[in-house]
Amino acid sequence: MSEKQLQQVTGGCLCGAVQFEINGAVSSFHLCYCNRCRHNTGSAHAANIFAKPEALRWLKGEEKIQRFELPQAKSFAKQFCRECGAPVPYINRSGAFLVIPAGSIDTPFDFASDDRIFVAEQAKWTECIATLPTFDSYPDQF
Fold first, then answer.
1. Residue 87's domain is classified under what CATH number?
2. Taking the chain, what is the end-to-end CA distance rounded to the nearest angstrom?
3. N or C: which end of the chain has fewer CB within 10 A?
């Protein structure tokens, strides 16, 4: 399998105040079902891509970024736009990894996640996802 790369991949927050570019190799891509990631995203799991810190270049709005580090956690942190609250990439506490929320990337990329982690903490309501009906937009009742 070839090395995963993100080259000239751009992304940003929901309101567009913060924008970034990623250029570099990807070390891993995890779907994390831990309790912290579920609370952080408000969803079933976080989808985080890991790369080297030097892969990140802020294009716009770096001054609008807020960082939060969970005091009781060894390494949990997050960064988000102060305007809209959307997550943006951050460098972990040790400085060893860049963590990129996959949903913040606008440029299409062609690799899938490596794995699902912390599945013992997966919410029961997510177990049926693969069997649910799918729609290209809102279902008719909207």
1. 2.170.150.70
2. 43
3. N
